[in-house]
Amino acid sequence: MEPYIPISFLNDFIFCPRSIYFHQLYGRSSESLYHSTDQSEGKAAHTAVDTKTYTTAKKVLQTIEIYSKTYGLGGKIDTFDTQTGVLTERKKKIKVIYEGYIYQLYAQYHCLVESGYKVNAMRLYSMDDNKIYPIVLPSEDKVRQSAFEALLRQIRTFDLSAPFAVNPNKCFRCIYRYLCDVAA
């Protein structure tokens, strides 16, 4: 199998391209070493899907592995209803719909379609406030689809030693700031 980009990297790369490198430094270390409280709470809220106990309905696929040969992507979905064709990405609480969230859905969409599933709708679900945010399918938003493909090219060609502009708002919140020689 060709090397692939983990779907989870898409949002991380947009937040900070350097964060993926630092995340890899921790390897298989306990996440308690580097996760923030928000990340730990988000992971805990995601447990029902991760353990496939969110629902017993057989029509709902939970946490299945997916792959796209076309885009060189791989990862997992949260839930996909095979009868309605609704793909859902669950987040603990959505305050802002970041492009990274949408691109994660795009990646999942392409992986599912390549696997033969028909995706009719996509949405983000904010668990804490029970809000649903519909997201337009990639086939209906050519501009965002092009930006998604450009992001994949950026990830594949990223050079950690390239000049980097510190963003104090992001760098201050980054869990890897103490490892980053530029932002620290």
TrEMBL record:
<dbReference type="Pfam" id="PF01930">
    <property type="entry name" value="Cas_Cas4"/>
</dbReference>
<feature type="domain" description="DUF83">
    <location>
        <begin position="10"/>
        <end position="180"/>
    </location>
</feature>
<dbReference type="InterPro" id="IPR027616">
    <property type="entry name" value="Cas4_PREFRAN"/>
</dbReference>
<dbReference type="InterPro" id="IPR011604">
    <property type="entry name" value="PDDEXK-like_dom_sf"/>
</dbReference>
<dbReference type="InterPro" id="IPR022765">
    <property type="entry name" value="Dna2/Cas4_DUF83"/>
</dbReference>
<protein>
    <submittedName>
        <fullName>Type V CRISPR-associated protein Cas4</fullName>
    </submittedName>
</protein>
